[in-house]
Amino acid sequence: MGGARSIERDGINMEKKVVYYMGTSPNNWLNKQLFRASLESSGGGDIVCLTPEDGIHACKVNVKAGIFVDSVSTINKPTTVTLNSLDSGKTMLDIHDAGAEDDRVSKLNLQPPTFHAFPSTDKEVTLQSAIYLPDKSTYGPGPYPLVVATYGGPHVQYVCNTWGMMTADLRTQYLCENVSQVYYCIAFYCFNDSFPYHLTFRALL
User: Is the pTM of this model over 0.90?
Assistant: First the structure.
């Protein structure tokens, strides 16, 4: 879990001898970003992150035009879309801001989860979790009944720093505050059977 979890190649510039790819970085696996690396070094040379802001980035690269479109969200902010420079990563144009353009975001006032990490039973793997708590100002400080939701695929990593799968998970938000007037604390955790890891990781639990 200390290295990159996944890499997706987005483009190659043969003139500048660089490759652009989406991936994670060591000890930063809750985020997904766009990187640039040299093709002339076996280790990638000085790898540059073109989207240093936290969050799950989804980028479309146009190598010839020297630009990329970045769609990004975090647990604290809905999706924004910008046009950016491939050389510097700087924003050239703001295209879309879901939080500003959709009034449901402010009306729902969804509370983001908090992230926590804990070791597997053999202490070899760090597991990620997201905790959803009821509003203390409305429901008191707890303790609350606990629901533990597990998953593992093999498929996409669920616990990550994004709005859509985490904060805007309306089923989980509903469980926190509405089920039979019992206000639950919800704990999602990600064990490493998620793509592309092998089934043997399940045995660690």
Answer: no
pLDDT of residue 52: 94
Tell me, what's the pLDDT at 48?
92
CA–centroid distance for 167 within its chain? 11
pLDDT at residue 180 in the model: 41
What torsion do the CA atoms of 100, 105, 111, 116 make, to the nearest 10 degrees? -60
Return the CATH number of the domain spanning residue range 110-204: 3.40.50.1820
Sorted by sequence, the CB contacts under 8 Å of residue 34 that are 6+ apart come out as 10, 20, 21, 22, 49, 50, 51, 57, 59, 61, 68, 70, 89
Residue 69 CA: distances (Å) to CA of 45, 64, 81, 85, 86: 25, 14, 7, 9, 10
Amino acid at position 76, single letter: N
Q: 204 pLDDT exceeds 70? A: no
Structure-token pair, residue 102: 């959709």
Where do the structural domains in the chain lie, given as residue ranges? Answer: 7-104, 110-204
As a whole number of angstroms, the distance between CA 90 and CA 52 comes to: 10
Q: Which residues contact 182 (CB under 8 A, 6 or more apart)?
A: 145
